[in-house]
Specification:
This protein is an all-beta fold. The chain has no helices and 11 strands. The strands form 2 sheets. Strands 2, 4, 5, 6, 9, 10 and 11 form a 7-stranded mixed beta sheet that branches. Strands 1-3-8-7 form a 4-stranded antiparallel beta sheet, with no helix packed on it. It is globular. The N and C termini lie far apart (about 40 Å).
Length: about 130
């Protein structure tokens, strides 16, 4: 059974950092596109970042470029999202998701492209 489990969320002050983890079981993250999404109350789910099969240049939403970094640890079958310089507008539930092995670059932001989702982890940025 394919499963994704996120962790690492919490309450942090503006300007602080968090590292989210997405641990996969039942499949190998090396062979899937793994994306991070977030959803704030009353808003649609939005794409944050994505790492592809080839480990080529990751994708980032404009709102997080330069602040967030996605990475993959094959030995731990885990994908991370390092979040620095956090802002109140980053507050949301963060989800990781697994998508097809080959995902066109213009499609990475669409949740419908991903077949497997974790349960989410809450990130709250507040003073």
């Amino acid at each position: 059974q394919l499963q994704l489990v996120e962790s690492g969320g919490g309450l942090v002050q503006p300007g602080g950092s968090l590292r989210l983890s997405c641990v996969a079981s039942g499949f190998t993250v090396d062979y899937y596109t793994i994306g991070w999404f977030r959803q704030a109350p009353g808003k649609e789910r939005e794409a944050v970042s994505c790492i592809t099969l080839s480990n080529s240049t990751p994708y980032y939403a404009d709102s997080v470029k330069g602040r967030f970094t996605i990475s993959r640890d094959s030995a731990k079958n885990t994908v991370y999202l390092q979040m620095n310089s956090l802002k109140p507008e980053d507050t949301a539930v963060y989800y990781c998701a697994a998508g097809p092995t080959l995902l066109q670059s213009n499609l990475w932001k669409f949740p419908g492209q991903y077949s497997y989702w974790g349960q989410g982890t809450q990130v709250t940025v507040s003073s």
